[in-house]
Each structure stands twice: as C-alpha cells, then as structure tokens.
Amino acid sequence: MKLDSYFYELFEGLPRQGPGDSQSTKKALAMIQPLPNNVRILDIGCGSGTQTIELARHINGTITALDSHQPFLDELDRRISREGLADKIKTVNGSMFSLDFAKESFDVIWSEGAIFIIGFEAGLEAFKPFLKPGGYLAVTDLCWIKDSPPAEIADFFGIEYPPISSTAECLGGIGRAGYETVGNFTLPESSWRDEYYRPVEEEIGRMRKRYPGNARVAELCEEMEREKDMYWKYSDYYGYVFFVMKKAG
C-alpha cells in the first residue's frame, strides 16, 4: 500500500492505527510481574497513543512514547493534556531504526502493531539493548493462527505482508533472540471489527466526501475496504498475537 499524504490523512483520523483494544493492553501488562515501582516504559511506534494512555492509567512510572509521524504525536499530546497525564507520558519524534536512548534504560519496551515495520526478529534484536537485564518486551504482530490458509488470503498477504508467519514460528524467534517467553494470546475479533475497522469505515466515508473524483483517494479507500473484506472472510486464519517476553537477567 502506498504511504502518501492521503494514507496518513486517513490514519490521522483514527483512534487506532491498527487492531487492538484496551482489555488486551491490560492483559499483557498484567503478565509483567512484578511491575517495578517507578517503571520506565518505551512505547515504540505509539501512533496516536490509545494504548499509551491505557498503560499510563495503570502504572506508577513514566512512558516515553516514540513515533516518526508528528501529527500522531500531536494528537497524543492533546490526549495527554485532556487526561492530565503530562507527568507520566513524554512524546518523542524518532525512528525505531535508530533509537537514541541510553543502553539498558527501560524496564519495559512496548510496541503494539508496529514491529512489522522493522520485522519481528529484527525488532526483537534492535530493541533488546535498551532493556535492563530482566526487562520485558511486549509486542503484537500479525500471525497465521490456523494452518493451511485458503489461496485467496495467502496470496493477499503474499503481496501485502510477505513476512507473515505462524504464532509458533514467532515463539521460536523469541527464543533465538535470547528472550524467555512469558505468555502470548491472540487479540479478539472485536479488536479488529469494532476498535479498528468500524472507525476505518467511517473515515473512508469522510475521505470520499472530501475528495470527490480523486483517483488516488478512491484507490486507497478500495484497498482498505478489500483488506477489511479479507478479515471478514478469513479471520479464523490470521490475527494479531500479543507476545510478552523477558530479557535474560
């Protein structure tokens, strides 16, 4: 999918830039035991920060929220102000490809729906130096959750996301990267249907009204609708999986 100004405009209008839900964020956070007092968390690829806000509500500590697209951070800053969380969350414009933090400076690194940008195993390796010994990494990634997917959806991801692998393959990657798996679970379908695709549909309608006759906007909206249709047909075969892991102490 082409990442142009129209793409970003569509996603700037969404509460989430990918599937997810607050209950899943809390469930993953509960796997991190004991959660350090005055915990330091780095949220990589935070987007407009729905999960960042949720994390901040349930910790005693601080969160550095990193993204490379400033309008997402601007929206997160507005949310931080509304929620009164300025003492807990700091936004930083930066790239996951060149993290500019002190080594071993975070107790927890979080990344919902963003590790695909760098690649699952590449991300595990890239993030590890910034975790304290015994620190935790929590990420979501797109996985096959059922064997032998039909040709239509296999071909779709062969174009849209060729690195997609199974949950078991990702668990193997966690071990190869030198982490211990704490737990994993598949996000519920509601995190796609209600939390993500419903707002997508509403934003698509607004985009079409704003740009009547614009061929690129029409193409983008059709691509998003096809993606949604694929999920409606084949949600038994793939989903986002939350992986929580621990770095060796």
- The SSE order reads HHEHEHEEHEHEHEHHE
Shape: globular
**Count of structural domains:** 1
Low-confidence stretches: none
Termini, distance in Å?
40 Å
What's a quick, concise take on this entry?
By secondary structure, the protein is of the alpha/beta class. The chain has helices spanning 5-12, 22-30, 50-57, 70-83, 120-127, 151-160, 167-176, 190-210, 215-234, and strands at residues 39-44, 61-67, 89-93, 106-111, 131-144, 165-166, 179-186, 238-247. Strands 1, 2, 3, 4, 5, 6, 7 and 8 form an 8-stranded mixed β-sheet that branches.
Explain how this protein is built.
The chain is an alpha/beta fold. The chain is built from nine helices and eight strands. It has one domain (17-188, 236-247): Rossmann fold, CATH 3.40.50.150. Strands 1, 2, 3, 4, 5, 6, 7 and 8 form an eight-stranded mixed sheet that branches. β5 (131-144), α6 and β6 form a beta-alpha-beta unit. α2 packs across α3 and α8 (190-210) runs antiparallel to α9. The longest helix has 21 residues, at 190-210. The protein is globular and about 55 Å long.
